[in-house]
Amino acid sequence: MAENSDRSKNEITYALFDMDPAVYYQERFAYSNVVGVAAQESRVTRGSVAYQKASNLMDTLRSRVNETGNPALKVLEVGCGSGTFGARIKRFFPDVRLYGVDMSSSCIDIARQNGFDEAVTCDVVQGLPYADDEFDFIYTMDYFGHIEFRSKDAMIGELQRVTKPGGYGFHGIESGFVDYLNCNPKDPEDVVRKYVYMEGHIGVETLEDIVRRFSPFFEVVKAFPFPIRPLLNISNVMTSRFWGEEFCSAFAEIDTPRTRAAADLVIGWVNRYLTDRLLEVYGDRLLRSELGPSNPLIDTMLTGSGFAMITVRKSL
Ligand SMILES: C[S@@+](CC[C@H](N)C(=O)[O-])C[C@H]1O[C@@H](n2cnc3c(N)ncnc32)[C@H](O)[C@@H]1O
C-alpha cells in the first residue's frame, strides 16, 4: 500500500501527477489524418466493436431527430478532440447544427475541417461558453475520464444548464475501477501513474458511480457497459491475452489486417446482439445494483468493461 492511502478522490488531480492539462492535451489528440475518415468507413468498420460507440451515439441521435421531427437539431460535443465523431454525425445527419468545444486549439482546427459548424477552444472546467437551454442534444465521447473527480459534478451541472428542457445527452465514458487512492503519483514505475500519463485518464470511475453522479441533474434513461466483458476488440484480446495463450497462438497463425477486420466484425455483431438482448430482458439500466439477485453469468459480462454508455434527459 502506498503512503497516501488516506487521500480522497477529490484530491486526485493532474497537479498531483505533475501534469499540466493545457500542455498535455494541446497535441495529444490532434490527429490531422482523421479528416474525411467518416467517408472512408465501410460496413465492415461500422460493424466493429470500436465503431459501435459511434453507432450507439448515432442511433440515439436518430431517435431524437425522428421523435422531434426536426432534422436541424442543435448538437454540442464537449471535448470534441479532432472531431471524428462529429464528422460521422455531419455525414449521416447533414442538417444538424454541430458545435464543438475542446481545450486544444490544434484539435479545434482539425474539428473545423471535419465539418463542425462552430468549434471553439476553451477549458470547459471553467464553465461552458454557451447560454442556458441552448442545445437539443449534447454528447461526450472518451471525455469524462479526463476530468478530475473534484470538477465532475460542476461539469455535469453545466451540461444540464445548456441543455434545453426535455433535451437529451449521450455520454460514452471510460469506466471501471482504478486504484488512484493507493498509488504513488510521483513514482514513474507506478502502474496508475503510467496509466494516467498514457491517455490522461485522471478520473475513471465505475458505471454505478457515473450514474449516481448524473442522477441529481438528469434522468438517466439508459446505462450499460460496452463492450460487455468477454467481447473486447481483437487487438485488446491479443494484447491482454484475454482469451488465453492457446487462442492467441492460433490467431497468430492467420493474423493479417483482413482477418483482424473479420474478427472485429464478428465480435462487434455478437457484442451488439448480446447487449441489445440484455437491455431487452433487464431494462435500459444494466447496473449491478439494479439487477436483483446476483447471477454469475450476467455479473461476469457486466463487470470491468472499461467503457460505458449512458443516455440522459433533462426534465421539462
Ligand atoms: C480522448 S480525447 C476524446 C476526443 C473526442 N471526443 C473523440 O472521442 O475523438 C479527450 C479530449 O478531451 C479534451 N479535454 C480534456 N479536458 C478538457 C477540458 N477541461 N476542457 C476542454 N476539453 C478538454 C482533450 O483536449 C481531448 O481532446
TrEMBL record:
Residues 75-167 form the Methyltransferase domain. Pfam families: Methyltransf_25. GO terms for biological process: methylation. InterPro entries: Methyltransf_25, SAM-dependent_MTases_sf. Keywords: Methyltransferase, Transferase. One of its GO terms (molecular function) is polyprenyldihydroxybenzoate methyltransferase activity. PANTHER family: JUVENILE HORMONE ACID O-METHYLTRANSFERASE, METHYLTRANSFERASE. This is Class I SAM-dependent methyltransferase. It comes from Cohnella zeiphila.
